Amino acid sequence: MSHTSCRLAVLLSGAGSTFLNLHDHIQRGDLDAEIAVVVSSRTDALGLQRAKERGLPCHALGRKAFSRGGQFDVSAYSHALAELIAPYAPRLVVLAGFMTQLGAPLLDRYDTMNVHPALLPDFGGEGCYGHHVHEAVLASGRAVSGATVHFVDAQYDHGPIVLQESVPVLPDDTADTLAARVQAAERRIYPAAVALYAAGRLLREGGGVRILGQVDK
Ligand code: GAR
Questions:
Q1: 74 forms bridges with which residues in the sheet?
Q2: Is the pTM higher than 0.90?
């Protein structure tokens, strides 16, 4: 019987380091998945350029055409996005620094995952991205931060948590040094979470996620 790997639609808005990490894992044979399409919410995103350089099918779907009077139409954008990726038949939508809220038409059709640079449910939500997150963590005086992979629902940085990895916040940390430590955790848990999904080992139940076949310690 021929083997079909898990087809991914990767959505990004920025530099694309999250996308590169996933693609590197796939190319090394460490992650049994394939990137079927990359979509950027910005035409000038470095991540889009990088995906083109790697020979992947790429599209840009800007937010401008979906904004009226300063109001962004989440539903219309999500519908257009779902239509755009449908021909690539993805099994999972993977957010890789995608800075746009998504809604029903896309989220109803596709399981969607996100990685966030903090231990959700703390330090998430609109405006809580990139360095803002790490600055907020440092200002709070917490001794621990980390990274979270979760399934996406209609709220920003919200939904059933798949994996988390904590890292220490050190006394002399700056947002940069903390970001680097958190990013290293992201680089480990995002491919791991996608691999669990691809292997059919994630069961969503009661607002949470159960990992099938996990040995309790
Ligand atoms: C990632 O580090 C991710 O944690 C963060 O955006 C970065 C994207 O970097 N995502 C969020 O803050 C989601 N709320 P990249 O553009 O280099 O992949």
A1: none
A2: yes
CA atoms within 13 A on the CB side of 169: 20
Do 173 and 98 have their domain in common? no
- The answer to whether 166 touches 214, Cβ cutoff 8 Å, is no
Atom of ligand 1 nearest to the CA of 13: 16
Q: Which of 129, 149, 167 to mutate to test the pocket of ligand 1 (most atoms within 8 A of CB)?
A: 129
Check pocket membership of 146 for ligand 1, CB cut-off 6 A. Answer: no
- Do 56 and 142 lie in one domain? The reply is no
What is the tally of structural domains in the chain?
Answer: 2
Query: What does the block give as tokens for 149?
Result: 């992979």
Tokens of 141: 């005086």
- In order along its 217 residues, the chain shows pLDDT tens digits of 557 799 999 999 999 999 999 999 999 999 999 999 999 999 999 999 999 999 999 999 999 999 988 899 999 999 999 999 999 999 999 999 999 999 999 999 999 999 999 999 999 988 888 899 999 999 999 999 999 999 999 898 999 999 999 999 999 999 999 999 999 999 999 999 999 999 999 999 988 999 999 766 5
79 classed as catalytic: no
* CA–CA separation, 181 and 161 (whole Å): 20
Q: How far is the CA of 1 from the centre of ligand 1 (A)?
A: 38
User: Ligand 1, residues 11, 12, 17, 165: which to mutate, most atoms within 8 A of Cβ?
Assistant: 17
Domain of residue 45, CATH code: 3.40.50.170
144 and 178 in a common domain: yes
